[in-house]
Amino acid sequence: MSIDSKLAELGITLPAAPAPAANYVPYVQTGNLLFVSGQISSDAGGLITGRLGADMAAEAGAEAARACGLALLAQARAALGSLDRVAQVVKLTGFVNSTPEFTDQPEVINGCSDLMVEVFGDRGRHARAAVSAPALPRGVAVEIEAVFEVAR
């Protein structure tokens, strides 16, 4: 089954790949690795802002992380022409805008990790970091970057 068919089966429509907000590119491919710049949490309503442990619960943070995952997939499709070229999701690095007392960063970033496994199956299982940040760009709740292996 193609990844586009899998997305349709899951009822997932990818957003347009977001344009860079500063002096960087959205992705770089070197050899068979695709590095996708950090994608901040946003949806059709705009930026998903908030601070976990203050004004946002872990469940809402996981939804914000899933939105980051959709943007990561959109960037990968823009880079590769087709998500069928993704051989493996190698690594996600997730940053969670959270208070010093908040310790559920892994549960938040699961929103993106779970999406990758839903879409790619075993090829979606990846290494990962889930870390706290005292602030993120534009006040967003979550930012996630990714490394994908590209099939040759």
TrEMBL record:
InterPro entries xref list: Endoribo_LPSP/chorism_mut-like, RutC-like_sf
Highest taxon of the lineage: Bacteria
Pfam families per UniProt: YjgF_endoribonc
Ranges where the Endoribonuclease L-PSP/chorismate mutase-like domain occurs: 5-138
Gene3D superfamilies assigned: RutC-like
Cross-referenced PANTHER family: ENDORIBONUCLEASE L-PSP_CHORISMATE MUTASE-LIKE DOMAIN-CONTAINING PROTEIN, ENDORIBONUCLEASE-RELATED
Protein name: Endoribonuclease L-PSP
Originating organism: Paracoccus aminophilus JCM 7686
Taxonomic path: Bacteria, Pseudomonadati, Pseudomonadota, Alphaproteobacteria, Rhodobacterales
